[in-house]
Amino acid sequence: MHSQNQAPPVAWKDAAIDGCALRPLKKFSDERGWLAEFFREDELPAALHPAMGYLSLTHPGVARGPHEHVDQTDLFVFFSGTFRLYLWDAREGSATQGHRQMVELGEATPAIVLVPPGVVHAYRNVGDADALIINCPNRLYAGEGKQEPVDEIRHEDHPDSPFVMG
Questions:
Q1: What CA–CA distances, in Å, run from 149 to 57, 69, 165?
Q2: Each residue of 8-33: pLDDT tens digit?
Q3: Residue 50: which CATH number?
Q4: Three-state secondary structure along 45-94?
């Protein structure tokens, strides 16, 4: 039963989401270790080329998100630890509106994930050790010189959010 202030749960359809791209990270290994390309300008439209890059460390059991961007496309690289990635398509008019996608990525299943504007996303470190992620979004955080509003709609602080991480 839901209170008057709490929205009923959304019946998400577990399926792929239009515009999101998930590509396995191909490792080239030798006696020194491994190398993997995660961005090539000849494999991504110019509008999605990274404007910046950052590395983040997430402790075991900790989640980041759910949130979405109005204009920004994220280019995540999952290569460390074990993360559960959540994607929700709540975009009006999208061919995959109502779809939810969950996948485990990290050291055992490294991947590159492209998340377009309007797709709500989150991830949780489901492993037992700190883990790293790279993100190379196509917009600068807070704009040039960090003088613009942040392009982010945060859902994690709303108790009635339909974007529930299981």
A1: 24, 12, 27
A2: 568 999 999 999 999 999 999 999 99
A3: 2.60.120.10
A4: CHHHCCCCCEEEEECCCCEEEEEECCCCCEEEEECCCEEEEEEEECCCCC
Burial of 102 (0-12, 13-18, 19+ CB in 10 A): middle
Strand partners, 124: 63, 84
Measured between alpha carbons, how far is 110 from 105 in angstroms, rounded to an integer? 6
**Model pTM?**
0.91
The residue-averaged pLDDT of 48-66 equals 97
Buried b (16+ CB within 10 A) or exposed e, 127-146: beeebbbbbbbbbeeeeeee
118 lies in which domain range?
13-141
